[in-house]
């Protein structure tokens, strides 16, 4: 399976998941590639293989050449019909004219001010617990949240945390008035199992590795 074929398969199945939740045209891409400086050190090489209609969340975690890489990713995503969000760094997102910002759970309180100040930005956030998820609504400024880990994941933040599984993902979506995306361990082998999970889409890291 070529990279493009694999990524297209993931997108097709992510669309099936999103359409099972809502048959209406989704406001966000159903599939997001989350970059990781260690696991995907050259996200631009991956982005050029991604099919139109996907999203990319660039998480630079303070890497030295973040601005240059973000500009390159902005060009690739714009040329290829992809949506670009910048992880946590709204200043960089505005600098490169990204489509939005992805926030850590601890940064969720920033969302409402960002939404008021920059209403054109798509705002998403990580959400790791039911209590936080239940409290979020349309007044949060967020367009969607990502719950994780859905399956066992290599992410450092997921170590020692029990995976939600399909049942747990469904329980989280039932709590939320916002669209809920799944993240963590999702790949070509298990994405089909999320068809009736209630998720509005999925994100992945390792599934996009070249």
Architecture overview:
- The structure is a single chain.
- 32% of the residues lie in helices and 17% in strands.
- The protein has 7 helices and 8 strands; from the N terminus they run αβαβαβαβαβαβαββ.
- An 8-stranded parallel beta barrel has the order 1-2-3-4-5-6-7-8, surrounded by 4 helices.
- It is globular and about 40 Å long.
- The model has no long low-confidence stretch (mean pLDDT 94).
Q: How are the strands of the biggest sheet laid out side by side? A: 1-2-3-4-5-6-7-8
What oligomeric arrangement do these chains adopt? single chain
Task: Please state the average pLDDT score.
Answer: 94
Number of helices: 7
Tell me briefly what this model is.
With 210 residues, the protein is an alpha/beta fold. It is built from 7 helices and 8 strands. The model has no long low-confidence stretch (mean pLDDT 94).
Labels describing this entry:
eight-stranded parallel beta barrel; 17% strand; 7 helices; 210 residues; alpha/beta
